[in-house]
Amino acid sequence: MRWQRAVFANVGFLKMSGSGLWPWLCAACVALSLLMLAALLTLLTIRGLGHFWPAPLEEVTLKSGDIVIGQPVRETTLPKGAGAERLYFTGNQDVTGSNWQWIAIDEISQQAEPADLIRLTRTPWGDFIGRLMTLESGDQRLTEQAAWAFIQDALALPVNQRPPGTLVLATADGQILRQPLASVTYFQSPNAMSWGQKTIAWGQRIWQFLSEGPRAANTGGGVWPAIFGTVLMVILMSVIVTPFGVLAAIYLNEIAHQNRLTRLVRIGVRNLAGVPSIVYGVFGLGVFVYGVGGSIDSWFFSDELPSPTFGTGGLLWASLTLALLTLPVVIVATEEGLARIPDAQREGAVALGATRLEMLTRVVLPMATPAMLTGMILAVARAAGEVAPLMLVGVAKLAPQMPVDGEFPYLHLERKFMHLGYHLFDTAFHGEDVQAAIPLVFATALLLVLIVLVLNLTAIFLRHYLRRQRGNEC
User: Alpha helices, DSSP H only, in 58-216?
Assistant: First the structure.
């Protein structure tokens, strides 16, 4: 009997301790989730924003007598104790045929960071790393500080307003290049810059990344067209999906008879939320692009055929496809908000003489507004990160024209557009220089994650604000 009492005592202790274990387990899961999110943001911030910092340039002299000038990127250890190698970004692709060079650490006899090393970005050959010999502008030949000041003033002007000039540049092995000033987009001497100057240059490069268009097959330049296309598509998608999702939820919860058919419809809506997004892309391509768009071309744009106007991917079809993709999210969130409203609120409004329409519009819908907003913002957050369906219904690597311009009707729904998610995919896997594109991939991913985080935080704050304003628990 003594051992039985001990067993029962232990079982009772486990039951008591188990009831207090669950809160700690839930707290640990939340802490782990926040830690993973913080680690993701830290990685993206360091790798993404660190790309824009003016990194020092090294001049390396090898034991063979060769000289290499470049930015050290990383080191790797060779297998079987064969030593280590360091990767340098050397630029000058038009001279050497490659932007990168591996150098064995054992082969380095001397390395320094001279203050006269420069790095400039040009079109179409990307970065040049070396030395500035002179600047020729008309009859003038400027050197050192005078040339640098002239270049900085010229780069602050639009390309068509820059004074004529040619940069005489020297590579590490002494080759001379003549670079027109009009083709230079960025110029710096990082080894001669102070921390304050580097901070200013860092901010300028980030602004250029956010405000300029891509260059060099998306491995250079900025992402402004992708930001604009993403935001415009999400706005159009929200305008389309919100009324349909809210009205469908109202019908299912407030108007339709609650029977087997209604339950089947709810199950179908929830199952649609789990359908792979590429399936929606195939549906949009077949129904919206080829079906509806092809019919519009045959009715209204027959003079343009066989070149399609609406019968090809565009902003309108991408917005409709993502609206269909996010419709279940809005319906489910809105219906759950409607279901949380006590029946006493509805019965009280009807007892006071309100019609069914007045009860819905003046009592039920205002109380369910937080749930509607939450569903809409969650739909926006999902749509902002989708890539697979857009590849079939309108996104482009480089859009020749923006969907919005000064030409009537100003908003061109038939045009292709750029998207941050697709830009990220294309830069990572289809760039000419994948190694050079890696920092831009991290920077673009950070921008996309921040947009999604802002949208989700907006949903939380709006929900909290409306709860306090209306004093309900929806």
Answer: 93-96, 144-155, 195-211
pLDDT > 70 fraction of the chain, expressed in percent and rounded: 93
Contact 435, 298 (CB under 8 A): no
Task: Give the pLDDT confidence of 248-293 residue by residue, as tens digits.
Answer: 998 888 888 888 888 898 888 888 888 888 999 999 999 999 888 8
Place of tokens 């640098």: 148
The whole-angstrom separation of Cα 273 and Cα 279 is: 12
Q: Take residue 212 and report the two structure tokens written for it.
A: 């300029």
Alpha-helical runs (H) found in 62-133: 93-96
Mean of pLDDT over the chain? 84
Query: What is the number of H-type helices and E-type strands within the chain?
Result: 15, 13
Question: Rounded distance, CA 452 to CA 383, Å?
Answer: 9
Tokens of 218: 């998306």
Amino acid at 138: G
Whole-angstrom distance, CA of residue 422 vs CA of residue 424: 5
From the list 236, 242, 262, the residue with the least C-alpha distance to 376 is 242
Model confidence over 400-443: pLDDT tens digits? 778 887 777 788 888 888 888 888 888 877 767 777 788 888 88
Is residue 174 exposed (0-12), middle (13-18) or buried (19+ Cβ within 10 Å)?
exposed
Q: Tell me the average pLDDT across 357-385.
A: 83
List all residues 6 or more positions away from 44 whose beta carbon is below 8 Å from its beta carbon.
Answer: 442, 443, 445, 446, 449
State how far the Cα of 336 lies from the Cα of 331, in Å rounded to an integer: 9
CA angle 335, 383, 239 (to 5 degrees): 65
Cα-based distances in Å from 13 to 4, 10, 27, 275, 410: 14, 5, 22, 46, 72
What pLDDT shows up at residue 215? Answer: 74
Q: Are 404 and 472 in contact (CB under 8 A)?
A: no
Helix axes 365-385, 224-250, angle to 10 degrees: 140
- DSSP structure class, residue 176: E
Alpha carbons 141 and 147: distance in angstroms, whole number: 8
Averaged pLDDT for residues 53-63:
91
Closest CA to 68 of 82, 83, 89: 89
H helix or E strand, kind and range, residue 85: strand 84-89
Angle between helices 260-272 and 315-339 (to 10 degrees): 130
pLDDT of residue 310: 84
Averaged pLDDT, 44-65: 89
Q: Taking 70 as the threshold, does the pLDDT of residue 116 lie above it?
A: yes
Whole-structure pTM over 0.90, yes or no?
A: no
In terms of C-beta density within 10 A (0-12 exposed, 13-18 middle, 19 or more buried), how is residue 317 classed?
buried
For residue 53, how many other CB atoms are within 10 A of its CB?
14
